[in-house]
Design brief:
Blueprint (H helix, E strand, L loop, with lengths): L12 H16 L14 E2 L4 E4 L8 E4 L2 H18 L10 E2 L3 E2 L2 H11 L16 H17 L4 H12 L11
Antiparallel strand pairs: 1-2, 2-3, 4-5
Length: about 170
């Protein structure tokens, strides 16, 4: 997260957004495109949930946000409102330099600039990708179930729905 502070960000927006989005991807396992489809109305910080729309295969879903993730989202929302002024519910949740909506391509580029700070050695890929946060979240969920003695096969439907997979068998490869 400290590496995000070193990104070129004349007004501070890009650095703060990249940091918040990385935390959100890590905490939720969202697809890398999904944070950039969020509008202000999609994030309920009173109930700690996010409504994911415009997804792969048009499969909308509601995901819970941990207290920590919701706290960071709330802090970001308040901060960006102070920098850019009040935004309407239908406007994007995430912004970049100059108050432009943040897009996935810009996020991928920013992550490319800081990814070496993670010191990860992925298998099968030359470097860590934003999508790896999603895969890590899914695998860590399954590992937690194993540690607590849960019936993985019985729980996999829950993980499948959470990830927004069309078919539960799409989740089995984890």
């Amino acid at each position: 997260m400290r590496a995000c502070d070193g990104l070129f960000s004349p007004d501070g927006i890009r650095a703060r957004t990249v940091k918040t989005v990385i935390g959100l991807l890590w905490a939720t396992g969202m697809r890398p495109s999904e944070p950039f489809n969020l509008h202000i109305r999609d994030v309920d910080l009173e109930r700690n949930i996010a409504f994911i729309r415009e997804t792969k295969f048009s499969k909308e879903r509601i995901i819970p946000l941990s207290e920590s993730a919701a706290g960071q989202m709330k802090a970001y929302r308040e901060w960006i409102g102070g920098v850019l002024g009040h935004k309407r519910p239908e406007e994007p949740f995430f912004y970049t330099t100059g108050g432009k909506p943040m897009v996935e391509k810009a996020m991928r580029y920013a992550f490319k600039l800081i990814r070496d700070s993670i010191h990860a050695s992925p298998k099968g890929y030359p470097h860590v990708r934003l999508y790896d946060f999603r895969h890590t979240r899914a695998c860590n969920t399954i590992l937690q179930w194993l540690r607590t003695g849960e019936d993985i096969n019985a729980c996999l439907h829950t993980l499948s729905a959470y990830l927004g997979h069309v078919h539960p068998e799409d989740t089995y490869w984890y």
